[in-house]
Amino acid sequence: MRCQRIAEFRDAVVWRARFDLPADRSSAYGWDGQDFEVAGDLTGDLRLAYVSCNGEEVGDMEREGSERNAMWARLRDQHRRQPFALMLHGGDQVYADEVTHGHDLSDGWPDRVPDAPSPEALAGLRDHLRERFFARYAALYAAPEMVWLAARVPSLMQWDDHDICDGWGSLPQRRANSAVGRTLFAVARESFLIFQHAATADDLPPRFTDRTGAHLGWSIRAPGLRILAPDLRSERQRKRIMGPGGWSMMEAEARLDAPGHTMLLSSVPLLGPRMSLLEALMRVIPRMQKYEDDLRDQWQSRAHRDEWRRMLAMVRDMAQRDGHDVTAISGEIHLATRAVMEIGPGQHLHQLVASGIAHRAPPKGWARFLGALASLGEHPLPGHPIRIQPLPGQKTRYTAERNFLVLERSAGNWAAAWHLEASGPTAALALSN
Ligand SMILES: [Fe+2]
């Protein structure tokens, strides 16, 4: 085991321990006198857990632990029953929204940003933000339910906006590009690498495609399985979701021969309902402009229509190759749902949405409203209609309960089941075409 200091904070030092485990059988490692078993066999039948949205925007640090982490406890019980080989975290691993509070330069973020703060003031802000991010991650990793799992199941994580701040990338450019905005992003990124990848920017693990870290997209391969996680935040602007780095990663991956199943982690859902009507409505009602920004964060926003089509066409082409299946997996909306895009005769692209593990669900009325909107259907690519559908056993398209997802490969066939806080586990949905 190779131990190394990777970061220092006011009252703490972060150490990383690196070690290898076999990926073709179960094994164990020892730490501090205790043995931890790891179900690391990625060659045959296996189970993956998928979680997202581990927190809330307001007051997350003050929540009562057993209520906050109730779904983590269920996931832990699932692992005890039948272990997971990997745990995938699809975004909003931390809700950093409140880190900007308590400092003169960032108290007004994102509505008011100072024009030209001094270098000393910015250095002070950086320290403030680093300590605040540290406190949040330290609290998350002190939750016994999650820690028990994290010690036994290797985690792979991709970030979304709340790992930085609400709506990062969809904010007006002059705020995102302000000195305060750049400082916030830089500290969030450093924290993301330390606490979600045990890495630093000058020492990225090989799964990251861009060695310079201009974007933090990564991919891993195992027999018959590829997990592909583009970074939808680092290069995002008001009018684009991915930049040149993200696109060149996706194009290179699309060209690769990767027989089997590709799990595409899209931190915001790739398939979703028609948003244009809702956006048009929100533009004319001033009070609703905050929600317009939320919609702009989605692939389905009219601002991203061409880019969305480009991505859908690329994923369709990947899935149409012989022996290649693709499933898109996302969080973000604090509801559970699924969508299907027809990609060819008898062939479907599934979108699974599981969110959140700790974030409480929005009101049932919102779920019903989205369900009504989704009944309109959407067909951004001619000949490839997208339909939003209920989870197995549910009557409505969106289920307003906390949840996580279990992906299972059995005799080469993949299936997914959602675990819903009130309704329990759903029946399995077959994913293989
Ligand atoms: Fe979230």
- In CATH terms, the superfamily is Alkaline phosphatase D (PhoD)
Rg to the nearest angstrom?
21 Å
Biggest sheet descriptor: 7 strands, mixed
Please tally the helical runs, counting DSSP H or I stretches of 4 or more residues.
11
Ligand list: fe (ii) ion
> How does the helix and strand content classify structurally?
alpha/beta
Number of strands: 18
Global shape? globular
State the name of the first-level CATH class.
Alpha Beta
**Strand content range:** 15-25%
By CATH, the topology is Purple Acid Phosphatase, chain A, domain 2
What tags apply to this protein structure?
433 residues; alpha/beta; Purple Acid Phosphatase, chain A, domain 2; 7-stranded mixed sheet; 29% helix; 23% strand; binds fe (ii) ion
How would you describe the overall organization of this protein?
With 433 residues, the chain is of the alpha/beta class. It has one domain: 4-Layer Sandwich (Purple Acid Phosphatase, chain A, domain 2), CATH 3.60.21.70. The protein is 29% helix and 23% strand. The chain has eleven helices and 18 strands. Strands 5, 6, 7, 15, 16, 17 and 18 form a seven-stranded mixed β-sheet that branches. A seven-stranded mixed β-sheet has the order 8-9-10-11-13-12-14, with helices on one face. Strands 1-2 form a two-stranded antiparallel ribbon. A hairpin with a 2-residue loop joins strand 3 and strand 4. The longest helix has 22 residues. The protein is globular. The model has no long low-confidence stretch (mean pLDDT 95). The chain binds fe (ii) ion (FE2). Fe (ii) ion (FE2) binds next to loops. The site of fe (ii) ion (FE2) has 6 residues, from loops.
